[in-house]
From TrEMBL:
Pfam families: UCH (PF00443), zf-UBP (PF02148)
Organism lineage: Eukaryota, Metazoa, Chordata, Craniata, Vertebrata
Keyword match GTP-binding: no
Gene name of the record: Usp3
Keyword terms, alphabetized: Acetylation, Cell cycle, Chromatin regulator, Cytoplasm, DNA damage, Hydrolase, Metal-binding, Nucleus, Protease, Thiol protease, Ubl conjugation pathway, Zinc, Zinc-finger
Protein name (record): Ubiquitin carboxyl-terminal hydrolase
Length: 520
């Protein structure tokens, strides 16, 4: 958005401003001392926290407007407004009066000068910190704090994702998808799309709500985000460009309120699928798919049109079998799926932990069995029997006709009551490797023993009591090691910690090579 308030609000320059010490991304709010989401006022250089921490940056703007209300219009124009601030982590600029992000600059280019100055401060602080750590590591007594894998010393190569304001739901899904190797590699190998031209050529583009939909590409921003992860950077990546594209094409996710991670994943995969069907950067989707020899035609599952990498990897097929209880007429329907949503059986819903001694532990097999077992439909779901010519009582059963390369299992932890959506906090036991899906297949005799075995690649966990609150994190395995992704923080963990997690979404990858392992 072209902001008309820059000339009256941007008054500081790198030479005259008194910035705090240290890296800008770690600056503390001058009111509450929080170092989360720091913003610097471009009028007075004071630092405050963002609106989704304690909102002191917005309060600073509002307080500055109170004395102005008693002045004449001419006096208002002369006095600085404190309306424009800059994110100290992503360096994007925001105007509170316009209520949007800003893409233009002052005639003297002050915004860009401040941006470059903050970037230099960040780089200097990072270099100094790296030098300090190198000095510390020269002391042999501290070397024991490094991770040891297979007898050699190594470091964490994973990159975290900055929380842009309750965007942990997006970060958990992105980190999970980035560790599904075949899916991630496909996007990272795509050709880049250049969206910048004219005045913004050669400069960083900041997407805003006022830009047209034709200027954004979900596939391109998704590709950039995946490329930024697993490069060994110690600084968390800010997925702001991807988030603004999400705002553009997925209205349900506009704003900064907490969202459902599973709902976001489905929207993301669906929109990636639709955009890939249309082609990009002059290269058609089908041509790119043909270059990837691992995605053969026999493994594709079409959902909403032609096949893409989304359906080739996540796509499976269900057979929905309905039988009329009056005349015995059987109806069969084949439905494509990208994930399976599984109910947690009611008899386990009071079982909150693995070690609780009030009955058997719920397992993933119990949830899968509940999904595929024969079910009698209730009075509100009467089946329209074509032979009886009216709605009749019936039974329903699901079979899996085709398994996907990546099996995504969503545990339905949120249920609506009369007034609100409650969470089912039951612990569900799940295997790390050797999930056997053969008994749920329609024709198991046509599948080899290895084709039905799956190993866990990632887990999304919801912490908290409700879908509109709480926090999302993810566990994922990379090159034989398990990591815990908590927004910008990435830590190494172990299998014992992973299996104790109360899973919300599980990503299982089809086993390729033969290996001896226990089955579920």
């Amino acid at each position: 958005m072209e902001c008309p308030h820059l000339s009256s609000s941007v008054c500081i320059t790198p030479d005259s401003a008194k910035f705090p010490n240290g890296s800008p991304s770690s600056w503390c709010c001058s009111v509450c001392r929080s170092n989360k989401s720091p913003w610097v006022c471009l009028t007075c250089s004071s630092v405050h926290c963002g609106r989704y921490v304690n909102g002191h940056a917005k309060k600073h703007y509002e307080d500055a407007q109170v004395p102005l209300a008693n002045h004449k219009k001419s006096e208002k124009q002369d006095k600085p407004q404190h309306t424009v601030c800059m994110d100290c982590s992503s360096y994007s600029t925001y105007c509170y009066r316009c209520d949007d992000f800003v893409v233009n600059d002052t005639k003297l280019g002050l915004v860009q000068k401040v941006r470059e100055h903050l970037q230099n401060l960040e780089n200097s602080a990072f270099t100094a910190d790296r030098h300090r750590k190198r000095k510390l590591l020269e002391n042999s007594s501290l070397n024991t704090k490094l991770l040891k894998v297979n007898g050699s010393t190594t470091g964490i190569c994973a990159t975290g994702l900055r929380n842009l304001g309750n965007t942990c739901f997006m970060n958990a899904i992105l980190q999970s998808l980035s560790n599904i190797e075949q899916f991630c590699c496909y996007f990272k190998e795509l050709p880049a799309v250049e969206l910048r031209n004219g005045k913004t050529a050669g400069r960083r583009t900041y997407h805003t709500r006022s830009q047209g939909d034709n200027n954004v590409s979900l596939v391109e921003e998704f590709r950039k985000t995946l490329c930024a992860l697993w490069q060994g950077s110690q600084t968390a990546f800010s997925p702001e460009s991807l988030f603004y594209v999400v705002w553009k094409i997925m209205p349900n996710f506009r704003g900064y309120q907490q969202q459902d991670a599973h709902e976001f994943m489905r929207y993301l995969l669906d929109h990636l699928h639709l955009e890939l069907q249309g082609g990009f950067n002059g290269v058609s989707r089908s041509a790119i798919l043909q270059e990837n020899s691992t995605l053969s035609a026999s493994n594709k599952c079409c959902i909403n049109g032609a096949s893409t990498v989304v359906t080739a990897i996540f796509g499976g097929i269900l057979q929905n079998e309905v039988n009329c209880l009056i005349c015995g007429t059987e109806s069969r329907k084949f439905d494509p799926f990208l994930d399976l949503s599984l109910d947690i059986p009611s008899q386990f819903r009071n079982k909150r932990s693995k070690n609780q001694e009030n009955g058997p532990v719920c397992s993933l097999r119990d949830c899968l069995r509940s999904f595929t077992d024969l079910e009698e439909l209730d009075e509100t779901e009467l089946y329209m029997c074509h032979k009886c010519k009216k709605k009749q009582k019936s039974t329903k059963k699901f079979w899996i006709q085709k398994l996907p390369k990546v099996l995504c299992l969503h545990l339905k932890r949120f249920h609506w009551t009369a007034y609100l959506r409650n969470k089912v906090d039951t612990y569900v036991e799940f295997p790390l490797r050797g999930l056997d899906m053969k008994c749920y297949l329609l024709e198991p005799e046509n599948s080899g023993p290895e084709n039905c075995l799956y190993d866990l690649a990632a887990v999304v966990v919801h912490h908290g009591s409700g879908v509109g609150s709480g926090h999302y994190t993810a566990y994922a395995t990379h090159e034989g090691r398990w990591f815990h992704f908590n927004d910008s923080t990435v830590t190494l963990t172990d299998e014992d910690t992973v299996v104790k997690a109360k899973a919300y979404i599980l990503f299982y990858v089809e086993r390729q090579a033969k290996a001896g392992s226990d089955k579920l």
